[in-house]
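Re: beginner question about structure tokens

> Can someone show what the tokenized structure looks like for a real chain? I only ever see the sequence side.

Sure, here's an example I had lying around. Input first:
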Amino acid sequence: MKPFRRKGATIAASFDVNEVMLLRSLAHDIDAMLAPPPDRRDGAGGTAGDAAGMAGSNELDSPGGPGDPGGPPPIDPLHAIVGLPAGPGPERPTDPVLARLLPDAYGDGDGDGDGDGDGDDEAASDFRRFTEAELRETKREALAILVASLPAGGGKIRLTEQQAEAWLAALNDIRLALGVQLDVAEQWYLELGRLSPTSPRGRRLLIYDVLTHWQSSLLAAVTGYDD
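And the corresponding structure tokens:
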């Protein structure tokens, strides 16, 4: 890859075909991880329109409605307004990579989400309920922009400011995910120097190093520090 450089209103770089294939593959893997769980996809648990319609009906006065002790629980009006599906919100991901990509907004002190630390698990759960779906979609959109701007056979790319910001976000997520999988230490580059690049871990650390270089190069071009 030729380093990212600002060219007027755009940011340019060049990738060979192998680099393009690598980026496409990594982006595809992260996109698949960020796809909504089956029970959270469109239509699961009802839609915002369903909720709003239920909230505006006279079910409180009807037999078997929310006002009836034997009926379903009442609809939360706030959930209807913001378009949340009915039912409980998403739980903190158990997969360590996904937990890093979709972190809690509030820690519980020890980071295990069991509520025995200094943080607020309930606040974190509420925040996740209102933001996780949008965060997943935002990250997937950035990955899609990265993939769409890569020339299939390799070559030059020119990014607008908006595309460059999406690239930064996508590269950051890809690098974070790989870092969690590798459990990289603070001085990971020293380990890279000791490993054979043909070993499984050595190869993946080399990819992590390349991603770090690409991210740094793009950030320098975006911020104007590439001169």
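Each token stands for a local structural state, so reading them left to right follows the chain. DSSP finds eight helices and three strands in the chain.
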